[in-house]
Amino acid sequence: MQLEQILRQRKEKKDILLMTHIVLGYPSFEANREIVRQMVENGVDCIEMQIPFSEPMADGPVILKANQDSLANGTTVAQCIAFGAEMAATYDIPFLFMTYYNILFKHGEDRFFTEAKEANIKGLIIPDLPPEMGENFFRLAKENEIAPILIFAPTSTQERMATLDSMGQGFIYCVARRGVTGKKSSFGDDFNEYLARCRNATRMPIAVGFGIQDKEDIEALKGRADMAVIGSQTIRLVDEQGPEAVGPFIQGLR
């Protein structure tokens, strides 16, 4: 079953879906296993697994440090793909890979897609690959039935949104504000107008991320977005309190 269909089925039973984010190999793969277990057991609907990259340009300081520490620990792309396969075989939710294009380029696009398909990965988020430069990427995504997930931003024009909608699959990731991940977002009139533009511009479910940190944020998105994305906040929690704190935090978001 493809990603959009899975999310639409899950959305029938919930006011809003929840997607979480982990950096693979940070603080360790063993910790990742425990974090994913707690996330799934407490109702997460989709998990975005970041393959670490040395210059993650869309990410703020919390995720940047996690990427750099993971690489310093020796994390490899092969380990990340193997971990993704293990999680997809263990839990009945969709798992995605998020990374930057240089990772695919150096690994080999064809090889990466083949291995991701074998791992049962449902989608890919590559924030630094403009659609106009990704002809081979989109061809391989279609052939391997892995959703290329594209990103709307507050600066996106209607024309740009239409282009992204025509090329993306699975869902549209709506960045809540300008800048990088981690800083808390505010939901004022400008945001409401932007979110309405996002909804009108796509046929797919919409997910909202960047600065979503607590239950209040998620409540504010109900009825307007299909999925909320929690990223930096869970990494902060693991840094401060350990992996065992993730389950109660996720449970408290509903």
Automatic annotation (TrEMBL):
Active site positions, chain numbering: 48, 59
One Pfam family it belongs to: Trp_syntA
Keyword Amino-acid biosynthesis among UniProt keywords: yes
Gene3D superfamilies: Aldolase class I
Signal peptide span: none
Catalytic reaction(s) noted: (1S,2R)-1-C-(indol-3-yl)glycerol 3-phosphate + L-serine = D-glyceraldehyde 3-phosphate + L-tryptophan + H2O
Top-level EC class as recorded in UniProt: lyase
This protein's pathway: Amino-acid biosynthesis; L-tryptophan biosynthesis; L-tryptophan from chorismate: step 5/5
One annotated GO molecular function: tryptophan synthase activity
GO cellular component, one term: cytosol
Keywords in alphabetical order: Amino-acid biosynthesis, Aromatic amino acid biosynthesis, Lyase, Tryptophan biosynthesis
Its EC number(s): 4.2.1.20
CDD domains, per database record: Tryptophan_synthase_alpha
InterPro entries: Aldolase_TIM, RibuloseP-bd_barrel, Trp_synthase_alpha_AS, Trp_synthase_suA
SUPFAM superfamilies in alphabetical order: Ribulose-phoshate binding barrel
Record note on quaternary structure: Tetramer of two alpha and two beta chains.
Function: The alpha subunit is responsible for the aldol cleavage of indoleglycerol phosphate to indole and glyceraldehyde 3-phosphate.
Homology family: Belongs to the TrpA family.
Record protein name field: Tryptophan synthase alpha chain
Protein encoded by which gene: trpA
